[in-house]
Amino acid sequence: MDRQAPEYIELVAQLRELATLRSCGAVLGWDEQTNLPPNGAEHRANQLSLLAGLSHDRATDPKLGELIEKLSEQVGEGNEDSVEAANVRDAKRAYSRSVKLPRNLVKELSRTATLSQQAWVEARAKKDFAAFQPWLEKVVQLKREEADALGSPTGVKYDALIEDYEPGATAAQIQEVFAPLREELVKLVAGIQASDRKPDVGILERSYPIADQETFGRSAATAIGFDFTSGRLDIAAHPFCSGIGPGDCRLTTRYDEHHFPGAFFGTLHEAGHGIYEQGLNAEQFGLACGEACSLGIHESQSRMWENLVGRSRAFWDHFYPEAQRTFPDAIGDLHIDDFCAAVNNVEPSWIRVEADEVTYNLHIMLRFELEQALLSGDLDVADVPTAWNETFHEFFGMTPTDDSLGCMQDVHWSAGLIGYFPTYALGNMYAAQFFDAAQQELGNLSEMFARGEFAPLKNWLNEKIHSQGRRYDAPKLVQKVTGESLSAAPLLNHLNTKFGMLYGL
């Protein structure tokens, strides 16, 4: 396709205006989580609802549909590698979904999500699920209406929502991938729990002054490649990354003076998302090839930098001296082996975002099961705490002592992000497979990390993944980058090798 064709130029202009309008909502959403006074929630909800309605009007404009259809006929079924063809194909997919959604539903979803998130923050702090329950009931009902409006070839409501995060995936396909992963993880956890090696995690609960944590976290984020001239780091109730647009990517984390891993690895995780956002092709802003491939691919980047890099011994060979200088009272005289063992401790825990590499995926599988049941109507919102606690006990052998450690710990459901959670576990699988491919092409990454050289991996990811945008769907991107289809084998190999050595298995 000729990128200079008048129709294509017009499509680009319209899609960029739509993306710019949506980015205004992204700024307001970021501000809501970081700076909004509690009494401003109602007005912010109205602001975001208005913007959602305006965006929907543009996204469903019949003239845009006619333009896309005309260009689609020119593209045909070929041109798999063409940037322009990919942009048109994705525009057609987005348009066909948007026109199925009533404008009032879009606005109400936006408004409810804003108010629901504010209610969640307060209810979580008070450990009061009953106060949050009416909001979750409304969110779930609206998401059911959205799923019905969108429809799915499988007839499964959940599949209609997964499409927003992992295009083309279905719950059945994800379950098929998760089943063998869960089986192997349960075996590995059992082996670790039977080991007589027990890291001293009390090391991580010593005093780590928050100001020093922020300085150290920013230093590490900068070293791995996050550009603070095009981004920033703030505090929020739940860590997130917001890619506003070219040159503006915003990270958040949360601090606890007596829990070092939370903020540090949370910062690395969000910086991984940010590096992806900053690596997108700015010239393709508003178009498929300037957007992330999928949420699973996005999570692969954050989980890679957090775990495969940030929890590696090589990473700490480089950073540990700086950590000791920054936190002399906590670890000034502590051997690196003891510190690395502590940050890689495997033990069932309450909080997903602070979970170790091995048990993390079980947290995701729990949420995957429950939100499918919520959407189908097999689980009532009022029964969520009980269902959560029972499933958590089945998976981890523990029962949460309150709902802030259980079903209220994540922001996602309050924000209407049902269908998002599976992408975290998919991201772990993608990450391990990409990391293996990078090492095959670049050489010994551990030696590079120990020297403080993170640019080779970052640049490889920029080239192979970030700059491609949504040129290919996730399965095709994995195939092109690694030469193989998605498999749990690289992740399981990584986990068995690393933790087998740490725990003498």
UniProtKB/TrEMBL annotation:
Catalytic activity of the protein: Release of a C-terminal amino acid with broad specificity, except for -Pro
Enzyme class: hydrolase
Name by which UniProt lists this protein: Metal-dependent carboxypeptidase
Keyword set, alphabetical order: Carboxypeptidase, Hydrolase, Metal-binding, Metalloprotease, Protease, Zinc
Pfam families reported for this sequence: Peptidase_M32
Protein family (similarity comment): Belongs to the peptidase M32 family.
Record-level GO BP terms: proteolysis
Keyword Metal-binding: yes
Function noted in UniProt: Broad specificity carboxypetidase that releases amino acids sequentially from the C-terminus, including neutral, aromatic, polar and basic residues.
Family matches, as PANTHER family: CARBOXYPEPTIDASE 1 (PTHR34217:SF1), METAL-DEPENDENT CARBOXYPEPTIDASE (PTHR34217)
Cofactor(s) it depends on: Zn(2+)
Entry keyword annotation includes Metal-binding: yes
